[in-house]
Amino acid sequence: MRSLEDFRSGKPSSYPDQSVCAEYACAEFGLTFQDIDGGTGLVFSVASPTRTIYFGAGRCSWYPQNNATASTLASDKYFTHIILERAGAPALGGEYFFLHDRHRAHRPAGHEREDALEHFRKLDASAFVKPLLGSRGDFAQAIHGEASFRSYLDEVAQSYDSILIQRIVSGTEYRVFLLDDEIVYTARKYPPSILGDGVCTIGDLLTAHNAALRSRGLSPVAVTADRDPSLDFVLPKGKRWDIPGRMNLSAGGTMVLEAPPSDAAFTLARRAARALGLRVAAVDMFTDIGGDPQAMRVIEVNSNPSIRLLEQSGRSDLILKIWHHTFSAMGLLVPPI
After folding, report:
1. pLDDT (tens digit, 9 = 90+) per residue, 135-181?
2. At 297, which helix (H) or strand (E)?
3. How far apart are CA 240 and CA 243, in angstroms?
4. Given Cys at both, which of 228, 282, 287, 335 links 302, Cβ 3.0 to 4.6 Å?
5. 3-state SS assignment for residue 129
6. Phi then psi dihedrals of residue 132, to 5 deg
7. If phi over 0 gives left and psi between -120 and 50 gives alpha, with beta otherwise, what is residue 277?
8. For the chain, percent helix, then strand, then coil, each to nearest 5?
9. What is the pTM of this model?
10. 225 has pLDDT over 60
11. Is the pLDDT confidence value at 336 over 90?
12. 193-202 residue pLDDT tens
């Protein structure tokens, strides 16, 4: 049996992680994998003797067992929170606002850019803001002060047409990955960090970090010296400095396979996935909010989650489990009795 590393070997860095995992799973389950885009991995097919299914990278879903309505609802952070609250699954909530006038006639009043500023003021000019339909942590950050908020709106409007404004909440962040009602794995999230070299200031290291983010199409870290004077300090060699805010893997964060402190998190994750009608879901949540071990809320629900963590953690068994679920749901494999 070839290892997952064998299938990764020789692939360009741009080759999608899930395409590698799909090819690996096909070899394990006796299915035929075919890259149909000249070796990019962006479009491929998986075939059994009787059926062929096509997959695509980018915005395409890796999980066709999630129906289109459920996936679309989950991709909209406001829709998600409304549905979760109604289902008794506490979420962070928030209000949505549009950044452009187009389509204004098709939406209710009170959700325009000028309304966003008024709402921000009601939150004492401090809030966590992110694109309504964003992913990978792009432009997800805490904003303090009206000037910073106005600048943020100008910048995010170049890439997105709407935002969600939430109260700032702190807690311990976890991801719970589910297949139907089964918990496949749980992971604790940690913030990204920079490593000191004894020469560069924290600000200099952040500049390099931001350049790497931009090269991957992600917004930079929004930390300024007026809010954090430590940016002018030289970070000792080997010393780590945590970058506040988003903890997404794509933005440099880390995840470690680790269970939440109580089964209540599993109950909340299952309730959230059921409410949205998702068969595959990664539920991100805060636990221990404000130091209260009983306080937890859903941050968001991912209907097309990455499983790169499992490859990094050497858990190819779980990668196969997830792809077996997909292939079975699509009629490529006979599901286990």
Report:
1. 777 888 889 999 999 999 999 999 999 999 999 998 999 999 999 99
2. strand 297-302
3. 10
4. 282
5. strand
6. -60, -35
7. left
8. 35, 25, 45
9. 0.85
10. no
11. no
12. 777 888 788 8
Q: How far is CA 27 from the centre of its chain?
A: 28
Q: Which tokens belong to 283?
A: 């539920």
183 vs 89, 126, 263, 328, CA distance in Å?
17, 35, 11, 18
> Three-class SS of residue 261?
coil
Mean pLDDT of 237-244: 76
Amino acid at 98: F
Q: Quick one: which H or E segment has residue 148?
A: helix 146-156
316 vs 5: CA distance, rounded Å: 10
If 0-12 CB within 10 Å is exposed, 13-18 middle and 19+ buried, where does residue 78 land? middle
Distance CA 84, CA 91 (A): 7
- Residues ≥6 apart with Cβ < 8 Å to 332: 31, 46, 47, 48, 51, 53
What backbone phi and psi angles, to 5 degrees, belong to 39?
A: 90, 10
What is the overall mean pLDDT for the chain? 89
Distance between CA 89 and CA 226 in Å, rounded?
38
Q: In whole angstroms, give the CA distance from residue 153 to residue 148.
A: 9
H helix or E strand, kind and range, residue 143 = strand 141-144
Bridge partners, residue 227, by sequence: none
